[in-house]
Sequence to fold (343 residues):
Amino acid sequence: MTVHTPKPMVPAAGVPFLTHQLARARAAGVEHIVLATSYLAEVFEPYFGDGSSLGLHLEYVTEVDPLGTGGAIRNVASRLRSGPDEPVLIFNGDILTGLDIKALVDTHETSGADVSLHLTRVEDPRAFGLVPTDPNGRVTAFLEKPQTPEEIVTDQINAGAYVFRRSVIDTIPAGRPVSVERETFPGLLADGAHLQGMVDSTYWLDLGTPQAFVRGSADLVLGRAPSPAVPGRRGERLVLDGAEVAADAKLTGGTVVGAGAVVGAGARIEGSTVLAGAVVEAGAVVTDSLIGERARIGARTVLHGAVVGDGAEVGADNELRDGVRIWCDARIPDCAVRFSSDQ
Fold:
C-alpha cells in the first residue's frame, strides 16, 4: 500500500486519508497547519499546495532523518504562530476519529493543563499505551503496551490527538529522535506538569494495518466515521468520476471504486477499495480487500482480506484469502493460487 505512497496519502473514501483530517480540523476552526513529513515527503505539497482549497494555510517541514513522534513536534516549532501560553493542536497522521476537537481544546483551556490528551476506551488495550487518570481527569501514569493482567489497570488509551501549551513544545530536545509517548509525556509527568485526559468514545480507529485502513475507508463511505471530505453521498458504495461499473455488478459495504477503474459483469465487491485505474473482471468476488492503482483482478477470482499492490495482476480463477499481500507489479497466472497466508 505504501511502496509508492506515504500512508497519510493512501486514498480512503476517494481522497487521500490526510484530507479527512485536514477537513475536520478546518471545520473545528483551525486555520493554520504545519505538516511534519518524512517518508516520500515530496508528494504532499504538490497535492495540497498552500491549503487554500480547504480553507487552510498549510506549511511543510521535512525530516531528513526520522525524529519520532516527539522529535517531529519539536522540529516544526519555528513554524508555529501561537504565543507561549496558547494551545497547539497535534494529530497523529494515521488515526481516523470522530473526536470533538473543540471539546478537547476547551478541556485544555478550562483545566489549565500543560498538555491535554484525547483518550478512548478499547476492549483489548494490550497493543496500545494505557493512560490512567484520577477522578478529575488528570493523568497519573503512562503504561506502554501492557501484556499481563496486572499491568492492565485501565481501558483508557492514548488516542493520538493532543493539545500542547506552546511553551512546552520548546522543552522537547531538538535534533534527535524523541518519542512523545515514551519520553516526553512520562518526563513531563515526573516533573510535576499538569497532563489532562479527555475521554471521547466516539468513532476511533488506528489505521496501522491494511485491514484497518480498508475498514476505515468503508466506514467513511457508510457514514459511520464522520468527515466533510467524502466526495459524494454516503451509502453502500462510492463510485468516482470516470469509473465504469457493469450494470449487474454488486457493490456493497462501503466499497469505493476509484477514477478510471473498471468493474466487470457480475462482479461482487463488498467493503473494499478499488483504486484508480484498476480492473476487476467479470464474476470476481472481492471482500474486505484493497486493490492498488492499475492492478487487475482476473475473472472469477476470489479475494478476501487481501491487498493487491499497484500494477499487480492476479489471473482468472485464483483464490486469495486471510491477509495475503501481492507485491506491486507482481504477476499471478490463471488458476495458480488457492491458499491463505497461513497455509
